[in-house]
Design brief:
single chain; 238 residues; mainly beta; ten-stranded antiparallel β-sheet
Length: 238
Amino acid sequence: MSRQTVLSSLVTLWLAVPALAMFLAATPARAQIGSGDYMFLMGSGFLCDSGDSSACPAVVKSEQGDSYEFSGAGTLSARGKSVTATGTFAHKSPSGMVLDTGVWTASELVSFDSYGIAPSALMRGGRTFGPSPVGPGRLRMLSGSMPAGGLAVFRIRLLPMWGVSRTATLQINCALGKVPDERQTEGIRLAFEGGGVAFDEEVSGRTLFVLTRQRASPAAKAPAPKGESNPPLTNVQR
């Protein structure tokens, strides 16, 4: 790997990691908006704590053999058809040489198809994905939230360390819940706008959607009856 590639990768991490940390820390607060909202992880967060090296990052490959590696997190609203997400990416040659690296952001939710909740997903490989501190590579699970499966399609912008930015469609599939037969493979797919090489072979990587439930607002307290300012005089007072 060239010195330029190493330097660019380090700069990317220096820029992206603090941004992701702040994003993850702020996500629980934003996720309280409504019961139709989801948080999601893609090759990041506590998904990387399973001890499975193939969990992070999420990798997709083209027919030519080059690949893209993605990590990231965000929130989406299925009813509002909106998304806020960010992460890092790396483009590699068939031999594993880094061709490009940078940051990606999601600008539009094209579609989201939910497969339903999957409570058993909290336990995988004998490991419980419970509450964990917010910080690099971690995300706090909200009280009352539930893991879920689904297929999300985002329009994203890739901001490389060198070269021009590109717009693409990113597909994230989490095979939990009632998964259709044709969507049993968990992972990601990538297609650049304007045509070109399609990255449609899911190689590895864990993904997860978390359905958040709106916290019930505290019931308004009935005002205490006000005492009369000039109560009538009693016989004793007279």
